[in-house]
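JOB MANIFEST
job_type = single_chain_structure
chain_count = 1
residues = 320
[input]
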Amino acid sequence: MTNALGDPYTVYMNKDDYNEYTTSFSGEYTGIGIQVEVKDNKIYVVSVFDGSPAKKTGMIMGDYIVKVNKEDVSGEELDKAITKIKGQKGTTVLLTVERKGKFIDMNITRDNIVTSPVKGKVIEGNIGYVILSRFNENSSSDLKKELDSLKKSGIKGLILDLRGNPGGALDQCVDIASEFIDKGKIVLTVKDKNNNKQVYKSKGGDYTSIPMTVLVDENSASASEVLTGALKDYKRATVVGTKTFGKGIVQEMLSAGEGSVLKVTYAKYYTPNGNYIHKIGLEPDIKVVYDQKLLEQVYDEKKDPQLIKAIEVIKDKLIK
């Protein structure tokens, strides 16, 4: 029934599926250690966690997962595929990935995966560099702790990296936006099919004046676009990178009995300036394309053209 709607974000989950889904928002689960998103109606590997079973087996960012335990999977069945990939520690899952037209089988042993959605450090002497990989239940508190730590280190500017961030919990997104946007300003507006509105406003935070750049790419989606859209509309940050994914709709969970749920798309969201970005995406203020050859190499910050440009922009802001 949900497949008939033609909406990859509306899905049915039985009790086990739902339990597996909710654990992904706690930052601790049993699986193989990857982030995935829908791209070209396929399951696209956005990132592979350092030290994870997937990393050790040879999976890389840019792979497409086309089979799980020899069963075909597609972007329309993203949540179901994620559930199949997860499982008990010590058990194995056979994945077939597509890479540059070739198909590779990977037998991966599941393990406990503990992740924080936030990683930060000081670069260039006085610039805070924070990677936010997902909006899970700990994202806003973890980000606040990281920002406070960086502040004590004496940072004068901030680069927020949302590249590859597929989104997540809307309340966490609003809390994070509140750190950077003046209290009372609109973060986003949600409208349902009957044009009923729900307006989310900033609660105010400690970092509403720090000079900022935001890094995005084609895999920055959903809540990432909400945050980016608000920062961009208020000119709170310079957005650097490539056009974002374009997911301008929101879902809610409806009980379907006996622990099962329907995750249903029920509304559209709009940026503070009223922009609807579904299947359109957000254009960066400064477009910087990542060379495909660099993507195939071991990541090196010093060769990352988008990060280099973000640093340049921040330094210019600090001079002014």
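[summary]
The CA atoms of residues 129 and 159 lie 5 Å apart.
The mean pLDDT is 92.
exit_status = 0
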